[in-house]
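Before going further, learn to read the protein records used in this course. The integers have meaning only within a learned vocabulary of local backbone shapes. To see the layout at work, look at the sequence and tokens printed below.
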Amino acid sequence: MQPMISSQGNALTYNGEIYNYREIRRTLEPVWNFQSQSDTEVLLAAHDRYGLDALAELRGMFAFALWDEPRQRLFCARDRFGIKPFYYATVGDFFIFASEAKALLPFLASIETDSGALAEYLTFQYTIGEHTLFHGVHQLLPGHYLLVENGRVITQRYWDISYQIDFDHSPQYFQRRLAELIDESLELHLRSDAPIGAHVSGGIDSSLVYLLSDRRSGGAINGFHGRFGAYPGYDESHHARTVVGAAGGKLHETDITAADFRDSISAVMYHLDYPVAGPGAFPQYMLSALAARHVKVVLGGQGGDEIFGGYARYLIAYFEQCFRAAIDGTYRNGNFVVTAESIIPNLGVLREYKPLLQEFWREGLFGGLDDRYFRLIDQAKDMSGEIRWHELDRERVITAFREIFNNQRNVRKEAYLDSMTHFDLKCLIPALLHVEDRMSMAHGLESRVPLLDHRLVEFAATVPADVKFTDGRMKHLLKTTFQDVLPVPIVERRDKMGFPVPLAEWFSGELRDWIGDLFRSEQARNRPFVNVDHIVDGMARTGRFSRKIWGLLSLELWQQSFHDQAARYRAMLNG
């Protein structure tokens, strides 16, 4: 990508979309002679006018590097949620940056695994800091900017989320304001010169984004859905058809198979740069391939679960807080006023989550929420034999988790829901967005996430938990606000799965020999930190929805794609 250069000699290279660039441009036209209609030039002009404070004006997804000629300074920034990537490395006296981690590998002395980041990945299936799995390659964290000046590299946070709870307004006010902000976000996200479509999973978030966007576009939005037709327990296509049918729209479907997995999973890992999040990356890759055949831009519902309380684990913790308040008589010690009696009728949704309940309360009730929430999201609890933990610093991972989870600057009161959603917004969301961006861009498709407009997220952080999550009804505020938009079967469904993949069935059936051969290879047997024999022996005992095998398979495929190709990457720089 060629940089855009201003008359002052400033040069900008930029990845993303500034959705409100038209509004910013109007304010700058009196002081800037625009030569194009692009948001890139608007970003250059905004920096010229506001300097570092230009970041506060931007609504969108972006990662950029701007050489400030008068100040002899490099100014880099990443959007508030990490929708777009920014990687960098310092090699000798050189500062190198790129939008793909793999682009930096030829400049490194060697391709090695960062043991600290690996401990984080094995624990959460994502990293929670600036280190990546490539030793020496860093990521600029969401909501941060970076300056290279006078031989120094400085990073600084420019945006953060704060749960300043608004107890002064009624539920009806929050509903009206939510509807206004989502409408405003969609207006901005639908700006495009290219055809737009939307992912439709059959859940609340993607359904709402699709239906509202279709309304705004006069019925011009196509829906896209991936299904596992051979496995009814994983097939949500009938829900997606309900949503698109309610709008009278067209749904494009792709049937995803074990053969697709075998043939595509190495490409998935290559485009991801390094393992992150769950097996949903694979169907996302296949779905993006489908969408790219029809549109250039696709909308998704990413962020709704974290912002509005859509995970079963939130309900478990919320129930405990109600139960504890009933015993202690402390209903008003937190950002909610709710009785245990009112939450009980809604606990049926947890019928399928009994193992999760057992894990949450495995070491008793009423202890530190941070310890119990860690147990819920810890993906490594059943990897004692597969990983050589004595070679990794897991205690550092737990300490880093607690520092983020217990951050009193952001969550000042005692609502469990706010503490959990805050951690997930900071750590889980960037991992999910990593998948969203890389899997779509692998097919030249631009993915947009209108529920992660920062003004909408800032508003949601002010909503009291008893409004957002009334009586333990997950996504209550979202559902009641848009009850005239969402089909009743979608609002009332209790079986949302989150794009599960029938890995257990494939690995014990069609792909059994394939995965066995992969882990028994000479390369796999010589990997650091991993005991391959334990992986092979334990596959038959792995639970249906366990992400252990996925996490370890991703790690091995990643090392095949990059570590085993180190000589090829070194040759790129020399040739």
